[in-house]
Amino acid sequence: MDDQLLYALQIRYIKLHFTISFIEDAALPVHKVSAIRGGMGEMLLRANCIRDRECDCCDFESECIVRRTMYSKSAIKPDYVTNWESIGYVLECENDQTYFPKGGTLSFNLILFGKAIVYFNQYLQALSALGMHGIGSFHAKFVIISIKNTCLKELLEGNNIVMKNYQVQTISSYVAYRMKKITESERTLVFQMPATLKYNGEFLQKFRMDVILGAIRRRIYILDCFEGIDNDFYHDYQTPVPEVSFQQEKYVKVCRYSSRQGRMFLRGITGFVQMKEVYPETLPLLLAGELVHIGKNTSFGFGHYRMK
Q1: Alpha-carbon gap, residue 198 to 40, rounded angstroms
Q2: Global confidence as pTM
Q3: 31: number of Cβ within 10 Å
């Protein structure tokens, strides 16, 4: 890794593996992140909002816990960003099972970036409250039975949280670890969740490596701004673009319900793209993209891929 990329990847993060157990039969959608995220936000609002959810005119907006956890503001705001998505966290869940019997389990990941890391207890309380309220259209109730870090050390012991296992890392350390493990035969990006990518104002229907690399640079730059790391990584850092040898893609849309905007659809492409060659200068950037997710709707788990 060169010095410019190493500096840009000093973004702090923690990735937590949650396992929940249903205390009654449960029916859930295929894409569960929207239900988890929406339910978590609702629980945070119920516990913390004191102005009837009138966010635009709230005189406590700057101190709002819901804003700081679900819609954290950046230390630096790029000129070209007009509206902020939720950038402090990412939820991941690849389980497409729709029926869970009583006692059945579901696992998902919560990745926190930068200053959102200190609000772990707020996210945990919201998820615990969601378990008591219930998730999905039938409000299936659950309990959290395990929270592990990336080293598989348990944070949850009975009703206590073991904070010594709440271990903060940097994206640069993740990339360094992956570079030791990866082999030359791993030249395929497999998208476990749809990627919502734009080129010249149009949403992509096929994968393009130049757009993917641009999306990774942009995501890292936005997380740098969130952390207060001052650089122009998005424009300045360029790497060779691998040539595509084969790809298979599928256009999908995911329905979600917002309490403020009603029913809406998130769209993107999933599948895989195989590269003829992965250049040494490009590899660290591709590996960083595995962790940070790319494109729009990343807080819903979109833009999640893995090199295989």
Answers
A1: 29
A2: 0.92
A3: 22
